[in-house]
Structure formats: C-alpha cells, structure tokens
Here is the input.
Amino acid sequence: MSGTVRWGVLATGGIAAAFTEDLRSMPDMEVVAVASRTDASAQAFAQRFGIPRAYGSWAALAADEEVDVVYVATPHSAHREAAALCLEAGKHVLCEKAFTLNAREADELVKLARDRGLFLMEAMWTYCNPVIRRMTELVRDGAIGKIRSVQADFGLAGPFGPGHRLRDRALGGGALLDLGVYPVSFAHLLLGEPDRVQADAVLSPEGVDLHTAMVLGWSEAGASALLNCSIVADTPQTAAVTGTKGRIEFPRGFFYPERFVLHRAGHEPEEFTAGAAGAGLRGLQFEQAEVVRALRAGETESPLVPLDGSLAVMRTLDAVRDRIGVRYPADDLG
Here is the structure.
C-alpha cells in the first residue's frame, strides 16, 4: 500500500473524535468517511472534521471502495459486529479496546481476519507509545533483573448513574473492560498470560463491577501482579515494575506516559522521556503510525500489538469475570 492511507471511522463518540483529531496531524493519512447508526450523527461528525462522506449505516462505510482501513470506535459490546462487518467487506480494521466482550468473540474476529488475509489490530495505544516501548527494551535487556511484581491501577470517581453505559450489563458495562483492560494489558506486556487469576469485586445492582481487585500469577517466572480498576474511585492511575535489580515507576496516566523513572541500587534515579505526544495531540498517533507501517509492509498483524496477545488478554478478562460473577448476555450466545 503506497500513497495516502484512507481511513474510515465507525462511530462518532469521544474516542472517535480524539482519534480523528490526532490523525489530522499525520502525514499521508486522511479520514475520508465516517459512519454512525444515524445519518444525523454521521453528518455532524463529518462537518466538524471536514470529512467528505458520511453514512447513516455501518454497512455503507464497509462498502465504500475508497476506504482502506476502518477504525472501529463503538463501545466494546458492538466490536465483534462492527469489525466482522468490515472484515467481511474486505477492509483492514483497527478495533478499540477492550477488543471484544469475551474471548470467544475475539477468537471469531481473529480467525476471520486470518482467513481473509486482512490486517486486524486491537487499538491498545499504550503498546505503541515510545515511552512504553523504551521501558520494554530496558526490561528485556535486564535493567531491573528478573521481574517479580507488577502493580497498576486505573479508576475514575464518576459518578456514573444507573442509566449510564458503564452500568449497563447488556453493553458490557463495569470497570473491568473499560478501565481494567489497561492494567491487565500492562501486566501481559511484561509477563505474558498468567497461569493463576484471583479477583474480588464490588458489584452494582445491575450486575456489573464497580471496583475490581486482581492478583495474577506466573508460576514459571516467579512473578505476580496486583491490579485494580474502578468506576467509583479516582485511583492514582500509576504503575510500577519491580525486578531483582531495580524497579521502574510510571506517574499518573501510566497508560499514555510521557516519562518513567528507573531506580537501581547504587545509581541515581534515571528519568526517561521519549516521544511525548506533542502539543495538542493525545498520543493516538503512535498506533495510527503502526497500522500504516504494517499495511505498507504487507503485514496482517502488528508485532507491537499481536493478535495472540489480544486473545490472551481477553482470556484473562474472562477469568476475572468468572471469579467475580459478572456475565454479559452475549456470553450465553456462543
């Protein structure tokens, strides 16, 4: 794929707007179409961002021959439906996280993309962030020795009323899939899929998790992770990785960091800052650049956000939900 990469944006919410804003700063990329379930919403979004075509249906966007890749920005309850529609129409797809509602849906999407020879990637922007990539290089090179513990949390105080999407069980509501996916993915990035999953949660009257605490374990590595997520408490939103020779600490906003600090015995603390988002940007341009790099290289998966890794994260999220007793209607459709 050469020349300008033409994006379609599927959905018109806040993350779709942030994604479009960042993409406008990128060379050789443009948003050429947007779709929503209603024509009015699509038209308003298109007018706001100067997008030439607006569709009142997802199918119309998927059928647009001038769209190279579709960014799926719906709530995760619709990710499987929207992404599958685009893949079946021959479009490459970048799909927001959590990748799907459960591992079964994620596996269906991955199989579809691989069968069609199309690019598919979970929009885990954290993995594409230059600061996170620098951290993984240091860990791989032994800067902190063997990892023994990971700590990460992501919580918002809300309040989110009973009618809010985050409280709706049918829409995959709760803290885990919206916010907990970040701490879980952070731990997976460093240690892979755990072989032990423990969890405890406070549930809402609707049956979704308001606050969830997780302990993940890796027997072979001799490591564990303590992770938290919440939609009722403003947590520190920090992360730390501790090894046998030192530790790495991320300040608030660990999932889109601009810096981290390396601590090692006998050394002064070292601060690393690499590739900050830039004035007016949110950091989404890094995942956009990775998608375009992969497409131009003829790759159907990103080595930064591999599909097997996304599947593993979904299995862990399923295991957590099993432990805390949260089930979605879609879980019973498989």
